[in-house]
């Protein structure tokens, strides 16, 4: 028998001794209905939406997500950092810029710690106010923050933009101290070293808030001049002098730097000088005070402000002899009046 025949016989005999194979079972074929397919698509969409929501939540937590927020839902920071947020020409410029070009730089908000559904500003108060005035949503990054995180972010933004005056920084430091923040937090918020922080707090303690708010931010008045004002306010009757001044129409109509000058001038005048009224002022083309002319019982005192027009004082000194000569020349052509040399010669 051939080898292949032997193999066939062996397989045939083995198969004969086994149970016959069971008939094949036809597998059930599932045919998805339209409803089932739609349910699958819905589940896929829900999963995608959940992943997107998680990503947005992570972005919001990191302050990376820029949202459009209704300004009516935004409250200011608990720490005041400006004497006047909307009462100056710079704010009007900001409003016009946003009206024309839109808001380019987002503000930083946190979910309000006490009012659900509302927000609190870390920085960007003026942009929020401008958006509210224009009836626009404010573009904002929203990030959960502690009180300390908020004031540090607020202070650092102000330091980087350099748009707070000395007295505003001083009041910001004093308010944070009054709210119980420690000195390291104050220094971090204002990017100030210990000695500088001490000066901020000293000026803020020595000048009443009502005086600062009456004057305004006075960005051209630095620490030395605010220290001068603090010293002048210690004199007897000084607060009453300032209260009388800030009620005057001329004071109310003046810009903030001019108001500072007016307060200093009023406190420096003696009672005798006060009888002669306010000093006459000569302004440079920029509008800044260049010359101050003050009359008293001795005559006329002229004060030139060198920093307004560098070199002007030297120019004035050089021209004074010519003015004296011109005066004498005109006097000699006059009607013989007895006119004396102002120098006493």
TrEMBL record:
CDD domains xref list: RepB_like_N
InterPro entries for this protein: Chromosome_partition/occlusion (IPR050336), ParB/RepB/Spo0J (IPR004437), ParB/Sulfiredoxin_sf (IPR036086), ParB_N (IPR003115), Plasmid_partition_RepB (IPR017819), Plasmid_RepB (IPR011111), RepB_N (IPR037972)
Domain ParB-like N-terminal per the UniProt entry, residue ranges: 67-159
Organism encoding this protein: Paracraurococcus ruber
Assigned protein family: Belongs to the ParB family.
UniProt-listed Gene3D superfamilies: 3.90.1530.30
Identification of the protein by name: Plasmid partitioning protein RepB
């Amino acid at each position: 028998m051939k080898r292949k025949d032997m193999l066939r016989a062996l397989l045939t005999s083995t198969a004969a001794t086994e149970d016959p194979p069971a008939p094949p079972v036809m597998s059930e074929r599932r045919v998805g209905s339209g409803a089932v397919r739609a349910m699958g698509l819905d589940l896929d969409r829900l999963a995608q939406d959940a992943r997107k929501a998680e990503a947005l939540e992570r972005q919001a937590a990191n302050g990376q997500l820029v949202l459009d927020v209704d300004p009516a839902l935004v409250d200011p920071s608990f720490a005041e950092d400006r004497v006047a947020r909307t009462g100056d020409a710079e704010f009007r410029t900001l409003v016009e810029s946003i009206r024309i070009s839109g808001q380019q730089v987002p503000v930083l908000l946190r979910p309000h710690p006490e009012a659900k559904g509302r927000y609190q500003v870390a920085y960007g108060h003026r942009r929020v106010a401008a958006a509210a005035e224009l009836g626009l949503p404010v573009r904002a990054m929203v990030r959960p923050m502690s009180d300390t995180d908020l004031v540090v972010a607020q202070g650092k933004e102000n330091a980087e933009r350099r748009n707070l005056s000395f007295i505003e920084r001083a009041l910001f430091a004093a308010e944070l101290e009054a709210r119980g923040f420690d000195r390291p937090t104050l220094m971090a918020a204002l990017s100030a070293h210990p000695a500088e922080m001490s000066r901020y707090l000293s000026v803020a303690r020595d000048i009443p808030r009502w005086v600062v708010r009456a004057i305004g931010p006075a960005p051209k008045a630095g620490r030395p001049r605010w220290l001068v004002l603090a010293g002048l306010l210690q004199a007897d009757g000084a607060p009453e002098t300032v209260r009388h001044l800030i009620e005057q129409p001329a004071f109310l109509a003046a810009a903030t730097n001019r108001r500072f000058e007016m307060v200093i001038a009023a406190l420096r005048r003696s009672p005798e000088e006060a009888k002669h009224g306010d000093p006459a002022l000569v302004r440079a083309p920029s509008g800044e005070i260049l010359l101050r002319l003050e009359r008293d019982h001795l005559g006329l005192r002229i004060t030139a402000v060198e920093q307004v027009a560098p070199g002007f004082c030297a120019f004035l000194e050089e021209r004074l002899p010519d003015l004296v000569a011109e005066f004498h020349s005109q006097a000699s052509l006059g009607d013989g009046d007895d006119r004396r040399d102002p120098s006493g010669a």
